[in-house]
Design brief:
Strand content: 5-15%
Number of helices: 10
Distance between the termini: 60 Å
Order of helices and strands: HHHHHHHHEEEHEEH
Helix content: 25-40%
CATH architecture of the largest domain: Orthogonal Bundle
CATH superfamily of the largest domain: protein kinase ck2 holoenzyme, chain C, domain 1
Bound molecules: zinc ion
Radius of gyration: 21 Å
CATH topology of the largest domain: protein kinase ck2 holoenzyme, chain C, domain 1
Number of strands: 5
Shape: elongated
């Protein structure tokens, strides 16, 4: 299946690849690569970590050649297989950030608030993490998970595919780093009328209020 047919709402903007450096360095330095951490070279070169990906990534060999090559490799590959290379790097990234090393790299980005903050007022600018609603590429764009209100939001500054982060990442992150600096419980907005709290539907159903 052609890559363009699989992407739906997760199209990514083209970036300027005219500057020097490896393809990965250029991708991560671009606006669309901002949420991604650098996957270690050893991890990318270990074919065991790529099991199953040839079925997911069109023209896998060319994509791999583009992603794995160092700065001295042919730059002619860059624009030609850019979409395939992004897809491959993203899917490898989703696996990598579940490793101890990957979790640590994402923790540094989280600490620097590189993923942004929760838009919910009572979360008081709680830092968020990127996550996917699906592990399959081409389904949803990346979402932002707030560990305080435990909800997800659209990412206003990123059009990356959510599968580049996957569904497991936020939960594993906070299991691994329970010291991520969260308040004990989120503050809730309490609606009132002339100072009196409104009864919930559940309370009415229980017969507390006629
Ligand atoms: Zn929140």
């Amino acid at each position: 299946m052609a890559l363009s047919g699989a992407r739906k709402d997760s199209e990514e903007s083209d970036d300027d690849f005219s500057s020097a450096g490896s393809w990965v360095e250029r991708f991560l330095a671009s606006e669309s690569g901002a949420f991604l951490c650098e996957v270690s070279e050893d991890y990318i070169l270990d074919k065991f970590n790529l099991v199953g990906l040839p079925k997911e990534v069109p023209r896998f060999e060319k994509a791999y050649e583009t992603v794995a090559c160092a700065s001295e490799c042919s730059e002619s590959l860059f624009p030609r297989y850019e979409k395939e290379a992004k897809l491959l790097y993203g899917l490898v990234h989703a696996r990598y950030i579940l490793t101890a090393e990957g979790l640590e790299r994402m923790k540094e980005k989280y600490r620097r608030s590189e993923f942004g903050v929760c838009p919910r007022v009572l979360c008081s600018r709680q830092r968020v993490l990127p996550c996917g609603q699906s592990n399959k590429p081409g389904k949803h764009r990346v979402s932002l998970y707030c560990p305080l209100c435990k909800d997800i939001y659209s990412a206003p500054t990123s059009s990356l595919d959510g599968a580049y982060f996957g569904k497991t990442f936020p939960s594993l992150f906070f299991m691994t780093h329970p010291d991520a600096g969260l308040p004990e419980r989120p503050e809730r907005f309490v609606p009132t009328v002339f100072g009196f709290e409104l009864a919930t539907d559940a309370e009415k159903a229980a017969g507390g209020i006629q």
